[in-house]
Write a structure and sequence with these properties.
Length: 216
Amino acid sequence: MGEVIRLVIVDDHAIVRQGLRSILEREPDIEVVGEAASAGEALDLVAASRPHIVLLDLKLSAGSDVAGLALCGQLTAASPAPGVLVVTTFLDQQLVLEAIQRGARGYVLKDVDAVALVAAIRAVRRGESAFDSHSATMVVRSLSAPPSPARSGPALTAREREVLTLLARGLSNEAIGRELYISATTAKFHVGNVMRKLAVSRRAEAVYAGSKLGLI
């Protein structure tokens, strides 16, 4: 067995945390190292346990449906920063994009099946984006929106725009290569160029930046 993925679950409902833990602990390469019900608990736990991945709900208090967004930004600003995978009941295009802007590497709804959730966790650990079909549709829709005439962005080649669209679907370099009939190495080269031109360091950030600039 290879690396064991250390993971923290952040959700204000104990029954949800317990359910996620029971699912994930069946996987030999995933270890749940802790649970938190609030932003403060989460920050302390992450600092102490140094997980690879944080599963984060957006609703962490009765007074706000999106308190997790602020926590997402705090977690991803840390060093070392865990990969944040949002697992929530909220499906809203702006929320998906805002989570990406704050550093989340993936966004899935709580009705995702166990196999897809585990695949998303592993993808985030590999440095890839991870979106379920619903949130991926939101991202692609935002990318397809007409650009604002007041905004201008870096010049991407036609191939780089294709790559950006596939990044929005959460595809790996290998999958991008298969879609475009190019090698994974060539796909990685194009992904690197897209990220460099958009001045970002994460694939999900490239998707967000591209959507704001109307590059597709």
